[in-house]
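Notes on consecutive records. When two proteins share a document, each keeps its own sequence and its own token line. Never mix them. Below: protein one.
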Amino acid sequence: MADKHLAKNYFSSERKDMKFLKGFTLVALLPFWAGYAFALYNGNSNNLSNYSLLILAFSLMNFNAICGVEKIENKVLNLIAKLDGVLFFIWAFVTIIQLLIK
């Protein structure tokens, strides 16, 4: 019984530490999307590749928040997560279509 209580406290404290990281990565996705759009506009394929990898990594770190499985307490971060989720799935769909066409 004590093990369950200690494990519960351990995971809850770990969860509190991850709130800052989740908020930071959700907010960091917005400039990455802007950089991706700017690189797409300029036709810079090297930057497109770099931004794609950053977007993929940060989106996978926040996949539960982006897909709506996990609700964030902050309304602004929740809205940013939904926006990032929509952009991510549109980007993934367009990327798959481009690969199939080529």
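Protein two starts on the next line and is unrelated to protein one.
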Amino acid sequence: MSKFRPIVAVASLLLLLLLVVAPDTALGKMHPEPCFEPADFCRETGHGGFTFSPDGCNTCRCTQDGQLESCTMVMCPQDMSDQAWTDHCAELRRKAEAPIPVQEDEAL
């Protein structure tokens, strides 16, 4: 039996522990959910005909009468700490509450 076998076992255990614990602490964690619910946002804000991003990746659009028309559905989880995610969501919400209208095609 090698005299290094116990050291390798302990080092392997520590590495495994680091891989399990670190993603939710120092390195952040995955946040695959949107910052806010798009349908609720359309209903609450009444931004008819506007587009916005509920997660910094996908794009949603409200109908003129405040319903959710559509959203892209790209999987784009954010890897960040809880505080960074909270700040990210607050910034997205601020931007979404002052949306830029989409120009309708004049040819239709």
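For the record: Strands lie at 29-31, 51-52, 60-62, 68-71, 78-80.
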